[in-house]
Please model this.
Amino acid sequence: MSSSSHSLLTPFIQKESNMGWQNQGWLFSASLVVFWASVRSIRREEFFPFGPSAGDQLLESGDDQTFRLTLSKPVLFYDGSFDSLYINTNGFVATKEPLNESTYLGKLPPEFGAMAPLHGDLDTSDGVGKVYFRQDNSPDVLRQAAEHINRGFPEEDEVNPINTVVITWVDIASHKPQTRGDGRNTFQLVIASLETASYAIVLYARNGIQFTSTLVEDNGVVMHAGFSQGLVKGFFYSSQGNYYRTTTDDEASVRALAEETNSGLRGVWVYGIGTSPQFRNVVPGVVTDLPAETVDTQQHTDGQVKYSPAAEQIEINPLRYQPQNPEVVVVEDPEINVDGHPKLELFSYNLGSCANNRNKCSQFADCRDYASGFCCHCRPGYYGNGLQCVAEGKPQRMNGKLRGKVFVENSPSPVEFNGNDLHSYVVVNDGRSYVAISDIPTSVGPSLMPLLALSNVIGWVFALEQPGFRNGFSIIGGEFTRQAEVTFQPGNEKLIIRQEFEGTDELDHLVVSTTMDGRVPAVPPGSTVQIDPYTDVYQYDSNLITSSSTRYYTVTNPDGSVETRSYQCRETITFQSCQHDESLRDVTTQMLKVDQIFVLYDVNNNLLRYAMSNKIGDVNGENGGLENPCFTGRHGCDTNAVCRPDQGSQFTCQCASGFSGDGRRCYDIDECTENQQICGPNAICNNQPGTFRCECEDGYQFGSDGRTCIVDRPVDHCEDGTHTCDIPDRAQCSYTGGSSYICSCLPGFVGDGRICQDIDECQPGRCHQNAVCVNTQGSFLCQCLPGYSGNGVYCSSERTKTRCEAHRDNVLSTMEAHPRGARPPISQYIPECDENGNYLPMQCHGSTGYCWCVDRNGLEISGTRSAPSSRPMCIDHNTVTPTVGPWPRPDVIAPPPGTNLLFAQSGRIEHIPLEGYDMKKHDAKAVLHLPEKVIIGVAYDCVEKMVYWTEITSPSISKASMLGGEPTAVIRTDLESPEGITIDHLGRTMFWTDSMRDRIEVASLDGSQRRVLIDTDLVNPRAVIADPVSGNLYWSDWNRDAPKIETSHMDGSNRRVLVKDSLTLPNGLTYDSQSSLLCWADAGTHKMECMNPSRGDRSTVLEGIRYPFGMTSFGKTIYYTDWQRDAVVSVDRYAEKETDEFQPQKRTRPYGIAAAYPQCLSGQNYCSVNNGGCTHLCLATPNGRSCKCPDNAVAVGCKCK
Model:
């Protein structure tokens, strides 16, 4: 650390006024804090947060347990990138699943990649030892990781991790009796990752290493710490990779882990374990010196710690990592007590005030300043934690997805859940909650009926409140993590339920993500389940809520026999509260009473249903003799009303905020109609049940307060000609909204768009060795040398006849003798070939005068034959491939400058500019806001620079100009769930799927000429892709019983199945015309695969992807959206690995994605000129086109077939 950065820290450390300390040789300055921390061993309390309160998962108890943890950010280890890690009981983390421990215990290094903080034969079967783990990207944890790393590498550039994996082995015992001594070990491994590097931080607590060897085959083996690359595949065989060991075979080296350091803090070790793109070996921290003697001068007297004066100042490298906006606060630490002065002034975060944080509160909340910061408080008529507030009395909804694996009793195979819909509805004023989960297989459905722990949290969140008590939402709002551990009796089956509550969405619905893993006892099909009423005692602490209860249920089997069973449920809820408001500390213990429980598995619809009544109140069950209907739920108020208790059993019903009526009947207030100025000037008001939303008109945007619409005067510099782009022959100006524009060089030119230079494509190897390459402006030509024939990419000295020439010569060889010379029969036509031997696009019969169009193989195109007095308009099929030369290989050409990715999120479409194949993530922004809409599919018309999309809220297909303009609905009738959409920019048509109507349709781009193309043998059609040049259409059907990928011509003919095996949920689909590859992503198999449709050669590009939805591609790169990662991910198809990830600021599910090119790619089809001669729909096929009528043929006077 430089002296300048040291001086930045010093002003925030306040010296005591007693300067006599310095006369005694004391250094009481910034160094004191670091000095004292450095000379003692780290305590367990100073580990990174761990355990249930930190949101950790718990590894199953046992001797050799392994859990695969799927990562949201990859970990770089040696020269590999890993999207999952394997947590093991035996003190290590592996990069691939380890075999039985007998294959590696005592046989180090292992054959798999491993990070071992302390490896041996360990055991947690006794229930005392625990292994906790989680991923964490919270600011506090990232800051703590950065401090350790930067302290250990003081001369390196500052490191700021973006993600961590925290694994903690707590009180772990040896599997067999110790060879020397008894005890338990506690240690922690933290893997901190950046985009291009990963670090390991290993922490050993003071007194945390109590045994140093374990028994392996009755021999004592010293425990091991270090990093092993595992086996590395060579060309002929595999060999052991790098192996970095931090201990030796001497037990003293193991004990030294808690006594020494390489990071400047005793017991803390840091290592660089992987970098991209190159890495050689593990790099340890460099700060190994410690003033150990000073620690020994501590004297413990009467519970106080005293220090003897040091002889001289000790130079220590202070931290370079500093928080933002520090302020001086007083921290009392009983362990820092120097000569009776327990106070030491340090720095902490300035938590701010309402003046600059008011917009963080809910629109229905007020901000209140406290001495130490600010808090948000819901206004009267609303309740919540101030960040989220909902109207009193208003019913609440919750939506989410269920994922995970569940084993039923002794079944060896789990039932997997991959995003099953979970919906809940709560009538708040009587505490009644309803939960439904869809697509539950019959193999597990009946056995999940007793599992009320899956749904009862929503009852706690919105429970009916007894006087003086508060439900979950009133205290902590809608953002928290809940974990439930369920243990069934008598079989001891265990199940872990983890739920992430993510707050409210645009519709004020609570959003939750649920994961369920473990085993449940079997309930026979056809059984009924009755769950007894129960109570849960919830204990409240700072940012932590816990509960435990036993639940009894009765199973009535189909044969009439009855069983009584039970399970224990232990819950942990973690959240972030406002620490400045001391009123929250008054809540300590409450009891949730749950009764009127109803459970059902609907076998016909594969639905699992729960219903229950929930009341929150006194832990002793006392209500002070109150039986007011407001507290029992038997009041008869409208579901949108609040019950207000009065004297005795009297009460009144009051409609919730946003509703009017007498309380018995409540009606939604249309605030937008009653007060047309409610949103202020230049804003649009959208009414919603119980509330409203304001949106700025076009040309305006919200100001810094998030409420006022201020003018946004856009200037289209492209149209005005005031841009700074190069001339139109070399560059294009693209208006992006507001006053912004993008300059992009045209294909064949390179530059920043303001200055573009021609690319000399004539590099060695571009053309055949017997050809010459001629560079042209923006392109190139390959021409065979004299004496050779071919297309320039391939040249041959042997001149073979083309198909046309052979056809022509064969006809001429059958000529009949004639007085004036040999002539063909009158009924015979002679093919006409061009100078290259190809069929001329128009062929004519010399005798009859009839002419017709042919494809490149000389076959007549149906419907093109004309009478002798006219000539058909035929497309030269030999110009479909550009005459300037072959497309360069996809791995040496990037998308055209100015290319953008367009992707949909709920309520918006965003764009990411591309630079080469790379996403310019910092320049990404929303291009279209559509509040309250759920946009699914996105497509782009490169001709008119128009984006098209499907949305399912009010089912429709719409479009908007990328150059500016209002969205326009194209189709809004006879739709139920339009999803995938694709554009034929040549034929000016669009195709889409409707997963509810189970069909594929086509229409002109203005919405006219609508026709159902395919409506048979479809169950869940989703993605659809057109290849206009070849005239083919591709689509996916994620029918769970028989998923498939199909193709047909664009007129619906020649339909056939391309892929049907080894598919589960084929969501995304894309076709790359350059490589002729059709690629898809499967959210069930978690694979990305490709094939050439004409050859059927299927290959895997990538495995282990999470939950892909939409796809698009260009050349070597595939871009896809992922629901679990809330991200757009790029994949190098040649390298078979992910290369980048973009997570938008709005973390909601991304749906469809499309590439928007500044110019259309080369190519044409038979519909691109004069609508192919069709009066209505022209649909291309590989060898021509079909003229079709829309479904309303009679109304539009269409007579074509």
Summary: The longest strand covers residues 589-602. Residues 1-39, 291-351, 879-896 have pLDDT under 50 and may be disordered.
